[in-house]
Amino acid sequence: MTRILITGVSTRAIAESAQAAGYDFVTLDYFGDYDQKAWCENYALARDFGLPYGPGPLYEASRRLQYDAVVYTASLENHPATVARLAAGAALRGTSDAGGTGAGLLGNCPEALKRVRHGPALFAFLQDRGVPTPQTRFGNRPAPAAPHRWLRKPVGSGGGRGVTFWDAGRPPGRGYLLQQHLAGQVCSAAFVANRREAVVLGLTEQLIGQAAFGATGFIYCGNLYPLLRADGGAVSALEPEVSDLATALTREFGLVGLNGLDFVLCDGRVWPLEVNPRYSASMELIEAARGLSMFDCHVRAVLHGDLSDPGRGHADGAQAIGANRSTYGKAILYAERDCRAPDTRGWAERGIRDVPFPGEAIVKGSPVCTVLSRAATTDACYAGLLDQAEALGGELYV
């Protein structure tokens, strides 16, 4: 059986999917969380190799591991050269070159990453199709103070880190862009692709900068599935638009496997922000709700171009919330101040994920853990996340 290296900032959620589907894998990431090390082979850069986080150290650590193929997660999509090196370092080469991925690489190839993560190329393609996009100024150029409010965003950033409102008149600085701020609902679409076609697996709402979870500014801190539109419109009305977008992006950029599309729902339209050409954080909720294996969907699409019946066995696959549907939620809890983890040995049994080691030092602003919730309604599901965050705060800040 092919042994797969799963690597990136965090690998716990996708590793759970791989384990449930029966794949042979090893994980390499930054956190090396307490719960993950209990049930799979995991290596953490700092804890196991004494290395800082970064694409270079991930590659260096991978050279000490045996693997036949590689699946990458955030934020390696911003480092196509490292993706190429990881793939080339496979102990054995993959048996299929389906989708143009190159032997040993189970995911989008470096060339696809360069193109789809290049903001000017992505937005030019969308605009040519008549898709609404926020006004964006690339390069170190100021934007007009009116009529929009503008965001200052790091190029190639992830999770909303470093995003702030722009002080009008000041150059954004090297490595930053300016983008029109859209006052709308921030959402994500998950889809699986084979370079020719795409199947949308689910739409979710993103939780951004919520103080209840210790997040600030524009920091990503969770998702709710299925999407419930804040404007009261039917989610089903969005599905054709999102499906057409996913297919168009797939064909233009040669996308394969699992991909995510972040967008703002504004004035009843989908305004794309970026494509995440790899497994995304919202996907574990869709997997739980629909009873499908995201990891297996990914591998089958990459190796065989197989998009057939991706929701086989699903229980809650429809986007609309009906009488017998549930809402699934996750929230990432961030440290409100410097602290130490309490005795966390029982946290996994409480359904908490990404658990820190007992007594581990946690720096203000860094992620502590992930909490999950399921309830009959969106409000009840969100309340469940809030209750868990409050309870954990009482344990952390004693």
Describe what is shown at a glance:
The chain has 398 residues and is an alpha+beta fold.
Morphology call: globular
Number of strands: 17
* Percent of residues in helices: 25-40%
Strand-residue proportion: 15-25%
Task: Explain the overall architecture.
- This protein has eleven helices and 17 strands.
- α5 (80-88) packs antiparallel against α6.
- The longest helix has 19 residues, at 378-396.
- Residues 91-102 and 312-324 have low confidence and may be disordered.
- It folds into four domains: 3-95, Rossmann fold; 135-180, no CATH class; 183-304, D-amino Acid Aminotransferase, Chain A, domain 1 (2-Layer Sandwich); 327-396, Aldehyde Oxidoreductase, domain 3 (Alpha-Beta Complex).
- 27% of the residues lie in helices and 25% in strands.
- By secondary structure, it is α+β, with helices and mostly antiparallel strands.
- It has helices at residues 12-20, 34-39, 45-49, 55-62, 80-88, 110-116, 119-128, 239-253, 283-290, 294-304, 378-396, and strands at residues 3-7, 24-29, 42-44, 69-72, 136-137, 150-154, 164-165, 176-180, 185-194, 198-208, 220-225, 256-266, 269-276, 327-334, 339-340, 361-362, 367-375.
List the helices and strands and how they pair.
Elements: E1 3-7, H1 12-20, E2 24-29, H2 34-39, E3 42-44, H3 45-49, H4 55-62, E4 69-72, H5 80-88, H6 110-116, H7 119-128, E5 136-137, E6 150-154, E7 164-165, E8 176-180, E9 185-194, E10 198-208, E11 220-225, H8 239-253, E12 256-266, E13 269-276, H9 283-290, H10 294-304, E14 327-334, E15 339-340, E16 361-362, E17 367-375, H11 378-396
Parallel strand pairs: 1-2, 1-4, 2-3
Antiparallel strand pairs: 5-8, 6-7, 6-8, 9-10, 9-12, 10-11, 11-14, 12-13, 14-17, 15-16
Helix pairs in contact: 5-6
